[in-house]
Amino acid sequence: MIEIKDVYFKYLNFPTHILEDFSLNISKGEIVGIIGSTGSGKSTICYLFNGLIPHHFKGSFQGSVIVDGKDATQIPVEQMSETIGYMLQEPSFQIASAYVESEIAFGMENLGVPVEEMENRITAYLEKLGISHLRERSTSNLSEGEKQRVILASILAMKPDILVLDESTSMIDSTSKKELIKILKDLKVKEEKTIILIDHDLDFISKLVDRVILVNHGKIMANGLPTEVLTDVELLKRNGLVPPTLTSLFHEFKVNAFSLDKIPTTYDEAIKILTSWLK
Ligand SMILES: Nc1ncnc2c1ncn2[C@@H]1O[C@H](COP(=O)(O)OP(=O)(O)O)[C@@H](O)[C@H]1O
Ligand SMILES: [Mg+2]
Question: Which end of the chain is least crowded, N or C, by CB within 10 Å?
Fold first, then answer.
C-alpha cells in the first residue's frame, strides 16, 4: 500500500538531513503506530505519504514514494487526498468552512463528487461518527473533540483507503479518546482502511495497532509487534518516551524479582497475571 524506498530529505532551513536512506513499507489494512519524541521526524515521515514532501516543504529530496500504486512525488497533493486522508495535530488549522455541513462537503467538492452522492455521504458519515446533531452548527464554537470528528467525517467522506492521524489525541479528553478508538477499530474491520497513528500516548497506541515503528532522528530504531516494542521499557526510555502505565508497572514487578514470562500490554493480560499470583 505504501512503499517508501531510499529517501533522503533535508528541510531548506535545517542544517542536516532529517531522512537518510529511509525505507518503509505498510500493507493494506494494517494499523501502524509511529512513535518517537518531539522532533524525532514522525510528521516528516507522514509528509511523504501524500506528497507534502517534496511538493509543499521545500528542501533537497531524493528517493521513491509509491502509495496505492501512485507516485506521490509526482502527483499533486490535492489529488492524493482521494487515496490518503491526513488529520493534522491541531483541528482548528484544518477547518476551512463556517458550517459543519459545508466543511464535510468541501473536500468532496474538490474531488468533483456529484451533489446527490455528496448528500448521501454527509448523512452517512455524520451518523457513523455520532454527530448528526451538529450538521447545521457553526464550526467556530465546537469543542475540540467535536471539531476532530467533523474533520474525520470530512476526510472519510472523500473515501480514502489510508488514514493518517498525526497526534490527534493531544487535544481531546479521555472520553473522546475512547470513542475515537471505537471508531478506528470499526473503520479497520468494516472498511478495511489502512490507518497510521502518530501519538505520544502509548496507552492509546497499544489499544489499536498491529505494528509499532519507533523513530529517533529520522531513523527507525524499532519496527515490530506492540508486544515487543511497547514492553521494552529501556528502549522506550532511551528514545525519550514514557512507557505505557501498565508496562512500567509490570516492568517494576519484574525488576523486583516477581516471576514474569512477559510484560502485558492489555488490561486483560494484566488481570490474568495478577489473578494467577493471587491463587
Ligand atoms: N518546515 C521545517 N523546516 C525546517 N526544519 C523542520 C521543518 N519541520 C520540521 N523540521 C525539523 O525536522 C525535525 C523533525 O521534525 P518533525 O518531523 O516535525 O518531528 P515530530 O513530528 O516527530 O515532532 C525537527 O528537528 C524539526 O525541527
Ligand atoms: Mg509532529
Answer: C
CA of 60 to the centre of ligand 1 (A): 14
Residue 225 pLDDT > 90, yes or no? Answer: yes
β-partners of residue 35 are 214
- Determine contact, residues 125/117, Cβ cutoff 8 Å: no
Atom of ligand 1 nearest to the CA of 218: 14
Give residue-wise pLDDT tens across range 15-68: 999 999 999 999 999 999 999 999 999 999 999 999 999 999 999 999 999 999
> Buried b vs exposed e over 203-225: b needs ≥16 C-beta within 10 Å?
bbbbbbbebbbbbbbbebbbeee
The stretch 132-152 carries a mean pLDDT of 92
pTM value is 0.90
Q: Residue range 199-206: average pLDDT? A: 86
What superfamily would CATH give domain 2-226? P-loop containing nucleotide triphosphate hydrolases (3.40.50.300)
* Cα-to-centroid distance, 52 and ligand 1 (Å): 13
**What is the number of the ligand 1 atom nearest to the C-alpha of 57?**
1
Q: What interhelical angle do 144-156 and 115-128 show, nearest 10? A: 140
C-alpha grid cell, residue 208: 489499536
pLDDT band for 257, please (50, 70, 90 cuts): confident
Q: In sequence order, what DSSP letters do the residues of 133-159 get, joined into one string?
A: GGTTSBGGG--HHHHHHHHHHHHHTT-
